[in-house]
Amino acid sequence: MANFAKPSVPQFSVDVYQNAYLPDGGRDVDAVVTVTATGGGTSGATGFTAGGPAGVVIVVDCSGSMNYPPAKMEGARAATAAAVDTLRDGTSFAVVAGTHVATPVYPGDGRLAVAGPRTRAEAKQALARLTPDGGTAIGTWLRLADALLGGEDLAIRHAVLLTDGRNEHESPEALRAALDACAGRFTCDARGVGTDWEVKEVTGIASALLGSADIVADPAGLAADFTAMMENVMGKGVADVALRLWTPVDAELVFVKQVAPAVADLTGRRTDTGPRAGDYPTGSWGDESRDYHVRVRVPANTVGQEMLAARVSLILPDPAGGEARPVSQGLIRAVWTHDVAMATAINPQVAHYTGQAELADAIQQGLDARKSGDRDGATAKLGRAVQLAAASGNADTAKLLSKVVDVVDAAAGTVRLKAKVAEADEMTLETRSTKTVRVKR
Q1: Which residue stretches of the chain have pLDDT < 70?
Q2: pLDDT in the model for residue 3
Q3: Backbone φ and ψ of 131, nearest 5°
Q4: What does the CA dihedral 63, 65, 71, 72 come to, rounded to 10 degrees?
Q5: How many CA atoms lie less than 13 Å away from 32 in the CB half-sphere?
Q6: What is the pLDDT of residues 355-392, one digit of tens each?
Q7: 3-state secondary structure the chain
Q8: Residue 125: CB partners within 8 Å, gap ≥ 6?
Q9: Residue 10 CB coordination number (10 Å)
């Protein structure tokens, strides 16, 4: 029998990197907040986390297009089997087939199964029922995942979604409504297989549900990708962690962005929690570190004055069901000085991640321009992206860019658009454009 002893509660730390100095009358304060969790996801071979059991729903696109070529459906079955094998004993799980409707494949009774030798074997046998037929209605799939996960007392709720096509059998408004309904209830990693799916659709799903998005151009790579995804999910120790920011009277938060390991704007996801305080969702955590860029606009002040611009806290849910609690905090300061060198210096962490955010924007704008036939605009934007990738040491992104443009001078951002670009290469660059490289401290 599996040992269901719960692991220790993860320990969180908050570090703030900034140049606190402003010129006379200066107002904008920038800081990079690094959040590090240790001790989470250490439950060994059990499906229990620090707050209780974990649940996973694997949603597989079974629309008719998954049969062209047949290797896509074969790869999806193999990937799902690999994911099931990676589940820890005690993890609640289900497999869902997605077409123009959502169909529970295993266990199939409207509930979740509990992972163990018998249920894993049964689930893998049931994968024969994953057969391509019908259309694509991703919002419907997500709502079923929510119903399955919401019917259990779970600490971690996660979905893995695989699709090979566009969401053609429901309206964009229906998908948006489903994402709004599911946001905050579970996280979701989304994968596009092949090259017939819509990048912005898949990345939008992952962004709304605080998960990752990626492309698996060759179906043969699905099993390895699903295994790595599930290992990451099994490493999560606590869910529903929030970044709480308090600001003093007359100060305002301009934006809050995750900047590592990927760029994600959290500004619009704020939930007010009290006078001048608000929470920004960060999802589930294991042993990991993430960076956030915070900009605060403070009242203009004179030389010699100093103030607390913002207080940053990590808020964890109470495993016993009580009120969420702060576990660590950092302070963002503002100090007005007449020293020009101090006031104009840019903190290295802030400068690095400002460049990484610009890199992501330049790639998106460059690819959009290329698709619309604006060659000059595409060349300028992708050239700037090459320059930023080289300057920041983002070798992975630089390599992806080199498949779309011929690099003449990386430091100067001089490039030529390639005459022919493989669709998979362009989609890979677009899908991974928000991935960043950590700043060297």
Answers
A1: 1-9, 40-51, 441
A2: 38
A3: -125, 135
A4: -60
A5: 24
A6: 999 999 999 999 999 999 999 999 999 999 999 999 99
A7: CCCCCCCCCCEEEEEEEECCEECCCCCEEEEEEEEEEECCCCCCCECEECCEEEEEEEEEECCHHHHCCCHHHHHHHHHHHHHHHHCCECCEEEEEEECCCEEEEECCCCCCEECCHHHHHHHHHHHHHCCCCCCCCHHHHHHHHHHHHHCCCCCEEEEEEEECCCCCCCCHHHHHHHHHHHCCCCEEEEEEECCCCCHHHHHHHHHHCCCCEEEECCHHHHHHHHHHHHHHHHCCCEEEEEEEEECCCCCEEEEEEEEECECEECHHHCEEEECCEEEEEEEEECCEEEEEEEEEECCCCCCCCEEEEEEEEEEECCCCCCCCEEEEEEEEEEEECCCHHHHHCCCHHHHHHHHHHHHHHHHHHHHHHHHCCCHHHHHHHHHHHHHHHHHHCCHHHHHHHCCCEEEEECCCCEEEECCCCCHHHHHHHHHCCCECCCCCC
A8: none
A9: 25
| Predicted pLDDT at 237 | 87
Looking at residue 42, its pLDDT comes to: 47
Specify the pLDDT at position 324.
84
Yes or no: say if 140 and 178 are a contact pair by the CB < 8 Å rule: yes
Given this model, what pLDDT does residue 41 score? 52
The reported pLDDT for the residue numbered 43 is 45
pTM above 0.90, yes or no: yes
